[in-house]
Write a structure and sequence with these properties.
The structure holds 2 protein chains of 2 kinds. By secondary structure, chain A is mainly alpha-helical. Helix content of chain A is 71%, strand content 0%. In chain A, helix 1 runs antiparallel to helix 2 and helix 2 packs antiparallel against helix 3. Chain B is mostly helical. In chain B, 72% of the residues lie in helices and 0% in strands. In chain B, helix 1 runs antiparallel to helix 2 and helix 2 packs antiparallel against helix 3. The chains are: A mainly alpha, B mainly alpha. Chains A and B meet through helix 1, helix 2, helix 3, helix 5 and helix 6 of A and helix 1, helix 2 and helix 3 of B.
Chain lengths: 175, 108
């Protein structure tokens, strides 16, 4: 991917990421997050990770964000927009983030392997589909992990149902 | 494009998420910023998988083990979002607030 496109999608991701933090309205924050995730999906595509780019759009920009917006609509958000920013939190957050950025600059400037250019993919593999490669790995080396994730998703589903059940609706035992 | 470009983008995205988690008081926004940080980590993993090719010469291809890890992280993150939002809804039902400053019953 040429440099201007990387710059465009990187800025898209970062600017809308900042939009998530500074927007007072949670719905606007959620929509900013969608755009940020789509920019990130484009960055994945620039790294030849086409499958992950598609998954990013489907799962994050699709399913997860619908869930977020649904919950925001369920809850009362009017009271939140009136609140002022907490000064201590802003100062503390700024300090911690600044410290993290200094650390990041330090690490990246001393990271020699970081100057590596994007290496070319071999001629045999240039046309290979990464879905095939990931699928092969998923069902050979990572079968156990796949099953664990399956169980985890089942547990999460059951957990969500239990958590969102109303307390007052106790099932009456059959007479 | 060098590896540093991608790592810098990943680090900046993580910093935005970190700042959001500390500064914002709305628990849903905090949760969104957590997702942002998770995605920054994913980006670093994908970048490393692309820049450290496995195989030599014509057989060189991205290291798909890194992409597998990202795939698993996205799956776990989806489960985490579902459970987290269910907890937030349960919290809102019992306390009628999603503002973390109002949730101080553990403050002593």
């Amino acid at each position: 991917m040429p440099e201007p496109l990387f710059l465009f999608f990187a800025l898209l991701t970062l600017i809308f990421g900042i939009g998530v933090v500074v927007n007072r309205n949670p719905v606007a924050s959620g929509l900013c997050l969608v755009v940020s995730f789509i920019g990130l999906a484009a960055i994945y595509v620039s790294l030849n990770a086409y499958f992950l780019g598609v998954i990013q759009v489907l799962v994050y920009a699709g399913a997860v964000m619908v869930l977020f917006l649904f919950i925001i609509m369920l809850l009362d958000i009017k009271a939140e927009t009136r609140r002022k920013f907490n000064k201590t939190a802003v100062i503390g957050g700024g300090a911690v983030t600044l410290g993290f950025l200094v650390l990041l600059a330090n690490v990246l400037s001393s990271f020699k392997a970081g100057d590596k250019r994007l290496p070319a993919i071999g001629a045999d593999k240039a046309e290979a589909s990464d879905v095939v490669e990931i699928g092969n790995l998923l069902f050979t080396n990572y079968t156990f992990h796949l099953q664990i994730v399956g169980v985890l998703l089942l547990v999460a589903t059951v957990g969500v149902v239990v958590l969102s059940r109303r307390e007052d609706r106790v099932a009456t035992p059959p007479q | 494009m060098t590896l540093s470009h991608y790592l810098l983008l990943s680090g900046l995205l993580f910093a935005i998420g970190l700042a959001g988690v500390i500064v914002r008081r709305n628990i849903i926004i905090i949760f969104m910023c957590l997702e942002l940080m998770l995605n920054a980590g994913n980006l670093a993993l994908v970048a490393f998988s692309r820049f450290n090719l496995s195989g030599q010469g014509a057989a060189a291809q991205p290291n798909y083990n890194g992409q597998m890890l990202v795939f698993l992280i996205i799956t776990v993150a989806a489960a985490e979002v579902a459970v987290g939002l269910a907890i937030i809804v349960a919290l809102f039902r019992s306390r009628q607030t999603i503002h973390v400053d109002d949730l101080n019953s553990l403050q002593g």
